[in-house]
Every structure is written in C-alpha cells, then in structure tokens.
Amino acid sequence: MTIQSAYIHIPFCVRICTYCDFNKYFIDKQPVDEYLDALILEMERRTQNANTKLKTMYVGGGTPTALNIDQLNKFLSAINRIFTIEGEFSFEANPDELTFEKVKLLKAFGVNRVSMGVQTFKPELLEILGRTHKTEDIYDAVRNARDAGIESISLDLMYHLPQQTLEDFEKSLNLAMKMDIDHISSYGLILEPKTQFYNMYRKGHLKLPNEDLGAEMYQTLMHKIEDSKFHQYEISNFAIEGHESEHNKVYWLNEEYYGFGAGASGYTNGVRYTNVNPVNHYIKAIANQEEPILTETRPTTNEQMEEEMFLGLRLNCGVNKNKFNEKFNTTIDRIFGQTIIELKNRKLIEETQDYIYLTERGKVIGNEVFEAFLLNS
C-alpha cells in the first residue's frame, strides 16, 4: 500500500497548558535548531526510495507556531524539498502566535489549512487552562489567516471544563460559529495522568462539572450545529461542506501514514510505531544514524478489525461494511453480528445495507459502544 499521508511533531510550547498530556516541552533553552536538523534527516531517511507524493500533511505539537520565522522557513523549505503535497497541508497554531508574517510564510509554502487551539472565549477559563492568548487574539488570528489566503480555518473548543457552565460553552460556540471560519473541533476535557489538572484534582484543588452536564454540553453542541452553516461529520468535528479534515479521515478510515519527530506515532507497512522521546534522545538517535523508534507493534487481524470499528464509528457515515468485507475477507456480521444486534436493540447504533453508524445516544456514550467491539483475542 502506498503511504499518502504524514504527521510531523513539533514538541515545543511557549507555555505548558494545565490540561495537556501531549509530548511537549517549554521552548525556552530547548535545542530547537538541532531538533529541526534531526527531524529533516528523519524525513529524508524514512522516505528514501519511498513515495513522497502526499495527499495530506499535518504539522502538530506542541505548538508549531512557537517556532520563529527563521526556524519556520528552514522547516517548511525542507518539507517542500522532500515532499510533494497534492492535497491538504494543515498546521496547528496558537492564536497569539499566528502573526500575519508567520501565516503569510505558511501560505507561501503551501499550507492551506490552519487549526487554532482556541478552547474557550471566556478570559477566566483561558487563564485556568493556562492559555497564552486573549479573546481578542482569536479574532486577530482568524483575520490574519484569511487575509493571507488560508483556505480552511479550524478552531478547537473545549467543554466540561472546571468552573464552566452550559451558558459559558454555548456563548463560546455561538461566537465561533459567527466567525469567518470553516471548521470546528470540540472535545470534552479528559483528566490525563501527568497533567497539572490531574495533579490538582488528586489533591482536591480542582472540581469538574458532573458527567451529566458534560453530556448536556455535547448534546447542545450537536443540536446547535444542526441549525448552522456547519455539519457534523465525526463525533467531535464539524465543517462547512468541503472543509472536512482530510488528514484526520486517514486515522478514522484506519489508513497508513508516516509519523516524524520525537514521540510521533506512525502506521506503515502494517506496523504501528512510536518514536523515541524526549527531544535529546531523539536527536541522539538520529545523530547515531539509528532508527528513532521506541516501540513497534504489528496488530493482529482481530486487533485490526477492532480498530476498523472503533475508528470508523467515529464518523457520521459510520463503518463501510463492503470495505470491511474486502479488507478482512469475511463479513462484518460473521465477526460482530451479535454485538451489532445488541447495540441496535439499545438504540446506540443504526444499520443500512452498506453502513453501521452511531445514533445520537450512541455518540454521547461512544466509548461504551467502542468497548463492545472488543474481541476475545
């Protein structure tokens, strides 16, 4: 199978957010230039004698816009030299870092989609989350991106936050939907180990809204989207027609992709891998001309079928039964027939001739539905 997508990880941030468990480091005194040199070498080596024409490229973090202009120029120049990106080229950004100068540079190198970590429009909540931007920065960043000619602009919003009311979330959602943007991603807060929030919660210094309120926020999100210019196409993602995240569809459709950078994950030739981490270990591995891989796993057929269900059910259209049958040379009913009947009886999934998909109730308790597709390997 020809790999047509790539994810690149830039693990640096100007400030570490209280809820974030991604692989990231405070940028001050980090060997950023050495990291970029190592990253470029990894991209060159891994794609030697391989396909370098890509349909999607996604640069995430960390915060890629934490890089300065010279670093961005060096990084983007290397991407353009190594790859030909024929479709979507996405770049994550913080609103206060997306200056017109930076976004103009991104556009000059072919970036056509920017995803901004907004999270909320309420100043008090931005402070609790440890965000560096202010509400007005959101408007400036969207204007800068649009003025530079970026074709698709996406905002991330969070719900189920400490001290957040339903009205707070509705207000942020309403403000986002009125902006000149094309896509919204919205996620409920999950307390992850090793985050500041998790440590605060364990010590009794953090109180979350109850689960029922989190579910109500999510249902409000879905219902408000129905009456807007956006449509829901995945559990947490909403777009104007033609502006869906093509790169993220690679994950949900369980397709293969390169993963470059410290701590990055990839899926190539039937093997899921994770790169070494932290940054200095990654740089050392590249300098020693070693594969910078920490773990490699080849999913069993059962695990691949489970993944096909977990990931595909995230999409509104659901799991394509014909594709499943072709991929695994068996029918979806033969493997999951009893589970499908039980979930249909509970009104958590629906079924057509070609697809199996989540109901609204199924989306609210999606993880419970996904767990039902675990096979006894």
UniProtKB/TrEMBL annotation:
UniProt subcellular location: Cytoplasm
Keyword Iron-sulfur in record: yes
Listed GO biological process terms: porphyrin-containing compound biosynthetic process
Entry keywords, A to Z: 4Fe-4S, Chaperone, Cytoplasm, Heme, Iron, Iron-sulfur, Metal-binding, S-adenosyl-L-methionine
Matching InterPro entries: Aldolase_TIM, Coproporphyrinogen-III_oxidase, Elp3/MiaA/NifB-like_rSAM, HemN_C, HemW-like, rSAM, rSAM_sf
Example of a GO MF term: 4 iron, 4 sulfur cluster binding
Listed SUPFAM superfamilies: Radical SAM enzymes
Any Pfam family: Radical_SAM
Domain Radical SAM core: 1-229
GO cellular component: cytoplasm
Principal cellular location given in the protein's record: cytoplasm
SMART domains per record: Elp3
Cross-referenced NCBIfam families: hemN_rel
Entry-linked PANTHER family: COPROPORPHYRINIGEN III OXIDASE, RADICAL S-ADENOSYL METHIONINE DOMAIN-CONTAINING PROTEIN 1, MITOCHONDRIAL
Purpose of the protein: Probably acts as a heme chaperone, transferring heme to an unknown acceptor. Binds one molecule of heme per monomer, possibly covalently. Binds 1 [4Fe-4S] cluster. The cluster is coordinated with 3 cysteines and an exchangeable S-adenosyl-L-methionine.
Similarity comment: family membership: Belongs to the anaerobic coproporphyrinogen-III oxidase family. HemW subfamily.
Name of the molecule in the record: Heme chaperone HemW
